[in-house]
């Protein structure tokens, strides 16, 4: 214990010494900080002196600037004097020139009159007498003019004298003023310079004195501070040495303490471990005793339970009595005679012999059984071996069977080349395979009404597209829609622009929400012919390997057939679209050339004389012709990178290139919505109602002149615009939804704006791609591009930014690859206003409010119309019932009703609910109705003929 107390005291002393050292170190640090602060103050004073010197230099510069200003004022005065002199000289020159002109005029007058008189005398001798009086009058007038001229000369002379006097006076006045100004300026300069020099000298002397005094004081302070710092540094060095010694001694003491503490800890640990071992042994003994006690207690409790109410003394007494009795009985047993035992022994001996015999018999039987078991094992081994051989043979048999099946299939595949060829209809069936099948054994629903508002239809597409999570501006949507409408002139709508802006999604969603059949055809880089896109005839399999596009084209030109025998989902009464995705991965002319030429031939052709695509079905079999109907629209997307091919002028001429703009704001898509149910199919009749085949534009000459001017400028670089370009532009403008939706008489200004916007779209879509490749320097720039740009600027066509961009990014060649004009906020806002105005006008046309008939009259008219429809149906029912009730033969003009009265009523109810006309049902509508009513579809033709006959 004494050693521990000594160690604790030593530790306390060491801690006190450490604290004292810490306080000393803190004091030294404070002194060091004070010295640092004083040094910082000295630096600030030195910086202040530097700033004072800079201020003096600035004041000197200000004085220099004032001197320069005085000189500039003097120069201005000199310039004004020169200007006045120049004006006076100009006036003098003007007066002299006027005087010369008057003299020349007087000479001309003097010399001209005799010549005129001679001419008149020579030419008109007869009229001399009549003209004498006129000549005298003219002579008098000339005399008057001469007098006036003389007066003017006198006035001019007087004016010249006045001018000379004024000039002399101005010169004298100006010289006097100038001398006075020079004297004043000289005096002012001298005074200001003297004042400034005195002030500067005084300030310099004062500043120098202050600086010298402060510098001396700072030097003294610095010397004192340096001495103090040296002393403090010496003290610090001594104290550091002492601290190092103290720290060394402290470390030594700490090490000694640690050693002693560790030794004592080891000793105490050993003692404690011995005590712990003893205690553990004692604990084990105690546990054993406890267990023994528990066992004895349990034994006692068990005995107590067995004995019940008897006490232990009674139990011991009974046990001793019984042991004595047992001993007695044993003694009696040993002393008893052994007859019984002998008999028992004999009997047991017999049993043993019998058992031995039985054992021998069993051993013999066991040996025979063992021999039999060995034979069974041999048989099992042989059986397993046979099973394995059977399995291997079965595997070989299966393999040979598979080879045989493969050979049979190969034989079937090769046999058609040598056997009889399949029929033409069977091969056509592969071409006409449905791409868009029936849904639940029913065709896709068609829109019931043939008259659909075009703008409302487009607005609904844009709304549904936005709900899905994508946004397309109305201008791009309308441009794409108009490009499809003008397919008669430009059959291919090409979507180009930045990747990821929705070029492929626009046709897909336009078709989905607009009720148009859609097929996406990904173009492959290895397409080198039309067969790559449509398919080819496989001469080995003797069938046509049709691609989905060919199936889609075949389905789009076939009618809808709903009867059970000839079910086919034809689409010739609806609109369909084919999208050639990434169309410029391969050369378009290689795989689409036949389509381009055939679509060109389609323009102006009647429905019965449409061009067709020939599909080869094999040798000695007539090809299958697929007509290119107007219900199939073609669109394509393209990108510009190292993996794509550029479009040729042939494709550009026959297409409408719509450029997507660079997005200025990136749209979020926080949720990936599921595409909703597609819209009802748009009938071809509705689509045709939207297309205008005649140009009713009044002011086409203005736009035509712009195109002709561009064509003239292109002639300088060997390029040109064809007739097709202007025709496409004109009919694009005619068919644009805004132009169609606005009334030119009611809204003339808005109608003109819509035309301008449509024309601007066509400049980008049809004209600018034709400028590709023109050099942006030299002759091509000055004679073509600059003039076209000036024309666009003059006509206020908002394409200058994109035009400059095309000149800049093409590496020396013009390359149109942007659509920044579509990002103009003001134009887009105005476009939205025009769309809203057109929507209002179209809604008024669809639901006119300015008619003379009131709402009640309209309602009664509708009621009377429905009543008349019902009356017509009832009359047809009665007529049909009379026909069925009468037993007379049907005349040649009439025909028996093919349906029962109940079926006919159901048919009429179906027609009425679907707002159809019984007399104008087509055969496909009759077939659809009969299928819906679960009637016999085979009667379609009979019902159709009957309805036509009844009128």
From TrEMBL:
<feature type="compositionally biased region" description="Polar residues">
    <location>
        <begin position="855"/>
        <end position="865"/>
    </location>
</feature>
<dbReference type="InterPro" id="IPR052293">
    <property type="entry name" value="SRRP"/>
</dbReference>
<protein>
    <recommendedName>
        <fullName>Chromosome partitioning protein ParA</fullName>
    </recommendedName>
</protein>
<feature type="coiled-coil region">
    <location>
        <begin position="193"/>
        <end position="296"/>
    </location>
</feature>
<feature type="region of interest" description="Disordered">
    <location>
        <begin position="842"/>
        <end position="865"/>
    </location>
</feature>
<feature type="coiled-coil region">
    <location>
        <begin position="11"/>
        <end position="80"/>
    </location>
</feature>
<feature type="coiled-coil region">
    <location>
        <begin position="118"/>
        <end position="169"/>
    </location>
</feature>
<keyword id="KW-0175">Coiled coil</keyword>
<dbReference type="InterPro" id="IPR027417">
    <property type="entry name" value="P-loop_NTPase"/>
</dbReference>
<feature type="coiled-coil region">
    <location>
        <begin position="338"/>
        <end position="424"/>
    </location>
</feature>
């Amino acid at each position: 214990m004494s050693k521990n107390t000594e160690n604790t005291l030593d530790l306390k002393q060491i801690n006190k010494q450490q604290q004292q050292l810490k306080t000393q170190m803190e004091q030294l640090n404070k002194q060091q900080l004070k010295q640092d602060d004083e040094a910082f103050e000295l630096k600030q004073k030195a910086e202040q002196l530097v700033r004072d010197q800079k201020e003096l230099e600035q004041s000197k510069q200000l004085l220099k600037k004032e001197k320069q200003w005085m000189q500039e004022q003097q120069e201005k005065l000199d310039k004004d004097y020169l200007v006045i002199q120049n004006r006076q000289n100009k006036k003098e020159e003007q007066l002299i020139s006027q005087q010369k002109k008057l003299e020349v005029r007087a000479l001309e007058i003097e010399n001209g009159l005799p010549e005129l008189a001679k001419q008149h005398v020579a030419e008109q001798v007869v009229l001399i007498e009549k003209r004498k009086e006129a000549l005298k009058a003219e002579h008098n007038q000339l005399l008057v003019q001469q007098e006036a001229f003389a007066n003017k000369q006198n006035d001019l002379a007087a004016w010249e004298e006045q001018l000379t006097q004024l000039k002399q006076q101005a010169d004298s006045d100006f010289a006097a003023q100038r001398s006075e100004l020079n004297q004043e300026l000289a005096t002012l300069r001298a005074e200001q310079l003297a004042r400034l020099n005195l002030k500067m000298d005084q300030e310099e002397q004062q500043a120098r004195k202050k600086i010298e005094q402060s510098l001396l004081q700072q030097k003294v302070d610095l010397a004192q501070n340096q001495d103090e710092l040296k002393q403090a540094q010496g003290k610090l060095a001594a104290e550091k040495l002492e601290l190092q010694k103290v720290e060394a001694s402290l470390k030594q003491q700490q090490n000694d303490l640690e050693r002693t503490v560790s030794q004592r800890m080891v000793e105490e640990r050993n003692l404690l471990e011995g005590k712990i071992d003893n205690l553990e042994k004692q604990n084990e003994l105690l546990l054993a005793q406890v267990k023994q006690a528990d066992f004895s207690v349990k034994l006692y409790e068990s005995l107590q339970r067995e004995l019940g109410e008897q006490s232990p003394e009674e139990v011991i007494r009974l046990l001793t009595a019984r042991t004595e009795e047992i001993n007695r009985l044993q003694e009696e047993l040993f002393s008893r005679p052994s007859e019984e035992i002998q008999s028992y022994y004999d009997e047991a001996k017999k049993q043993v012999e019998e058992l031995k015999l039985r054992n021998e018999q069993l051993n013999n039987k066991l040996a025979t059984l063992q021999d039999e078991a060995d034979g069974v094992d041999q048989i099992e081994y042989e059986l397993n071996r046979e099973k394995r051989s059977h399995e291997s043979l079965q595997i070989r048999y299966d393999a040979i069977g598979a080879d045989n099946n493969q050979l049979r299939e190969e034989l079937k595949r090769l046999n058609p080349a040598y056997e009889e060829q399949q029929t033409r209809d069977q091969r056509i069936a592969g071409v006409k395979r449905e791409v868009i099948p029936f849904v639940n054994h029913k065709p896709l629903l068609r829109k019931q009404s043939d008259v659909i508002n075009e703008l409302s239809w487009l607005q609904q597409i844009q709304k549904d597209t936005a709900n899905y999570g994508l946004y397309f501006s109305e201008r791009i949507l309308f441009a794409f829609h108009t490009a499809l409408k003008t397919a008669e002139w430009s059959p291919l709508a090409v979507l180009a622009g930045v990747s990821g802006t929705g070029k492929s999604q626009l046709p897909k969603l336009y078709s989905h929400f607009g009720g148009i059949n859609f097929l996406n055809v990904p173009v492959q880089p290895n397409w080198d012919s039309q067969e790559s896109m449509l398919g080819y005839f496989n001469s080995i399999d003797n069938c046509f390997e049709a691609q989905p596009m060919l199936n889609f084209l075949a389905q789009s030109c076939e009618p809808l057939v709903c009867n059970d025998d000839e079910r086919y989902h034809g689409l010739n009464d609806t609109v369909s679209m084919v999208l050639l995705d990434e169309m410029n991965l391969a050369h378009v002319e290689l795989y689409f050339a036949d389509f381009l030429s055939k679509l060109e031939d389609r323009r102006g052709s009647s429905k019965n004389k449409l061009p067709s695509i020939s599909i080869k079905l094999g040798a000695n079999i007539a090809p299958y012709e697929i007509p290119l109907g107007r219900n199939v629209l073609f669109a394509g997307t393209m990108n510009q990178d190292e993996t794509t091919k550029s479009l040729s002028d042939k494709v550009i001429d026959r297409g409408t290139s719509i450029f997507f703009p660079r997005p200025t704001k990136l749209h979020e898509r926080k949720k990936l919505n599921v595409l909703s149910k597609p819209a009802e199919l748009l009938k071809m009749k509705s689509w045709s109602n939207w297309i205008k085949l005649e140009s009713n534009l009044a002011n086409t000459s203005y736009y035509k002149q712009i195109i002709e001017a561009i064509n003239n400028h292109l002639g300088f670089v060997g390029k040109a615009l064809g007739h097709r370009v202007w025709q496409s532009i004109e009919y694009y403008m005619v068919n644009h939804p805004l132009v169609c939706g606005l009334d030119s008489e009611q809204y003339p200004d808005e109608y003109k704006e819509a035309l301008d916007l449509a024309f601007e779209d066509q400049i980008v879509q049809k004209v600018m791609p034709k400028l590709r490749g023109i050099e942006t320097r030299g002759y091509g720039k000055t004679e073509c591009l600059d003039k076209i740009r000036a024309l666009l600027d003059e006509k206020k066509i908002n394409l200058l930014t994109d035009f400059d961009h095309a000149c800049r990014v093409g590496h020396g060649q013009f390359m149109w690859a942007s659509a920044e004009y579509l990002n103009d906020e003001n134009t887009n806002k105005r476009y939205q206003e025009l769309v809203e105005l057109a929507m209002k006008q179209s809604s008024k046309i669809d639901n006119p409010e300015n008619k003379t008939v009131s709402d009640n009259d309209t309602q009664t008219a509708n009621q009377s119309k429905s009543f008349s429809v019902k009356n017509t149906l009832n009359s047809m029912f009665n007529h049909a019932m009379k026909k069925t009730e009468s037993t007379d033969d049907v005349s040649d003009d009439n025909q028996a009703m093919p349906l029962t009265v109940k079926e006919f009523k159901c048919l009429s109810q179906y027609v009425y609910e679907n707002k159809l006309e019984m007399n104008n049902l087509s055969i496909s509508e009759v077939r659809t109705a009969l299928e819906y009513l679960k009637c016999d579809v085979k009667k379609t033709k009979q019902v159709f003929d009957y309805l036509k006959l009844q009128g």
